[in-house]
Structure formats: structure tokens, C-alpha cells
Write a structure and sequence with these properties.
Length: 245
């Protein structure tokens, strides 16, 4: 019971300190709008294309909302040595890191609903399969958060975390089928698409929003689940090796 009280307090502290801030809230509003507007300007598409691009906009909102925040907060706390005090807390390391990442998961999940709420007023979204879309959004948030944790543990400076994050994020935008189907990529780039967890989450969202997907849905869920578990376990191992003497 005491461990879960500590978990809740760490989560609340992070939400108050890092996530529930006007700049972060405005980021969650402006970023999806900017991406949507960019797509319309570039393609010349009208409002009828919103359901087609919504999966990509949602995924981008989650990806940047989670990785940007977590990679910076964990690296900053490690740099300021406040993270070392948390490591002294009488709770298991895996529960501690789940507490540290839960804020980013919640923030990323909420970010996903910003473009969805906007799209409700612009297009007919009655065809969305929510029982498929909601788990996909949560799994994308979890996998992206654990990717941010992996990045944060691998560097020592905040600017390094941001640079390393972009090394993963921008290729994922173009390779994971967000706005351009993977089958339209050059054949030598297609294998790279399948090494990113976002590919499988976006495939589920395309099925939920448009009824079109590339891989079996059960396979998408299994693969993104494996990525979530793998990234978390690798991050825990790196923390034990690099941060705990």
C-alpha cells in the first residue's frame, strides 16, 4: 500500500511540476493544429480528407507530447541530482519508473484527443471504432513514453536528449505510415518501417478511423506490446548499470 501511495505522489508531483503548465497545454493545442494545417496547405485537400489524415495527426501529437516531455524531465532531474533522491525511496525500481513515466503517458493520451475534438466539428467521425482506437492511442502513448525514457537514460544533458529524440522522431513521421502509406515508400526503406513501434499503432488507428489497415490487428497489438515491454526493460537495465552504483 505504501508503494502505491508513493507512486501516486510521484505522479502528482510530476503533473504539477512539468505537465500542467500553460506552455505545455498550449503545445498540446498548437502542435496538432500546425500539422493539420501544413497537410492541407501542402496537399490542397479539403475537409473531406480529415478522417484520412486524423490517424497520423493523432499519432504525431502523442509521439511529440510524450517524448519531448519525458526525455527532458528525467534528464533534468538526473542532472540536478533530484532523481538520486527518488532512487533512495523504499519502492521497487520498476514501480518508481512507472510512476515517473505515467505523467507522460497521461499527457500524451490527452494530447491525442485535441485533434479528435477539433475534427468532431469539421467532419463526420461516426464511423470510428472506438474500442479499437482507444487501446491503440494508449499503447502509442506508452511505447512513445518508454522510448523517451530509453533516450533520457542514454544521455547526460538535456540538449542531448532533444537531439537524440529527433533522431528517432522525424524518421518515424515519414516511415511509419502516418501520412504516406508504407507501400508507397521506396522498397529499400520499407524494412525500416517495421522496426518502429509507431508503425503498428498507426496501423490500428487507420483501421479504426478509415477501415483500412496493412497488417492483422492482433499482430499490431502484439508487436506494439512487445516494444513497450522491451523498451521499459532495457531502460531499467540501463538505469541499474549507469545510475545505480
Amino acid at each position: 500500500m505504501k508503494s502505491w501511495i508513493a507512486f501516486w505522489n510521484i505522479l502528482l508531483k510530476d503533473m504539477r511540476t512539468y505537465y500542467i503548465k500553460p506552455p505545455n497545454i498550449s503545445w498540446g493545442l498548437v502542435f496538432p493544429l500546425a500539422w493539420t494545417g501544413m497537410f492541407f496547405v501542402k496537399s490542397g485537400s479539403g475537409l473531406e480528407s480529415i478522417p484520412r489524415i486524423l490517424a497520423g495527426v493523432v499519432a504525431v501529437s502523442v509521439l511529440f507530447g510524450t517524448t519531448s516531455m519525458l526525455a527532458v524531465t528525467v534528464t533534468f532531474e538526473k542532472k540536478s541530482r533530484s532523481f538520486e533522491r527518488l532512487l533512495l525511496a523504499p519502492i521497487p525500481l520498476n514501480l518508481l519508473m512507472l510512476a515517473k513515466t505515467s505523467g507522460a503517458i497521461v499527457f500524451g493520451t490527452l494530447n491525442a484527443f485535441v485533434p479528435i475534438i477539433i475534427a468532431v466539428f469539421l467532419a463526420d467521425l461516426s464511423g470510428i471504432v472506438w474500442v479499437m482506437a482507444l487501446p491503440a492511442i494508449i499503447l502509442i502513448a506508452i511505447s512513445s513514453t518508454f522510448l523517451g525514457l530509453f533516450i533520457a537514460v542514454s544521455v547526460s544533458e538535456v540538449f542531448e536528449a532533444q537531439t537524440f529524440s529527433n533522431f528517432f522522431r522525424f524518421p518515424m513521421i515519414f516511415l511509419c505510415g502516418l501520412f504516406l502509406p508504407i507501400v508507397k515508400l521506396p522498397i529499400f526503406l520499407r524494412p525500416l518501417s517495421y522496426i518502429f513501434p509507431l508503425t503498428y499503432g498507426v496501423d490500428i488507428l487507420h483501421k479504426a478511423f478509415e477501415g483500412q489497415n496493412m497488417m492483422p490487428i492482433w499482430f499490431d497489438f502484439v508487436m506494439i506490446g512487445i516494444f513497450c515491454l522491451g523498451l521499459f526493460l532495457i531502460s531499467l537495465r540501463n538505469i541499474q548499470r549507469r545510475w545505480i552504483v
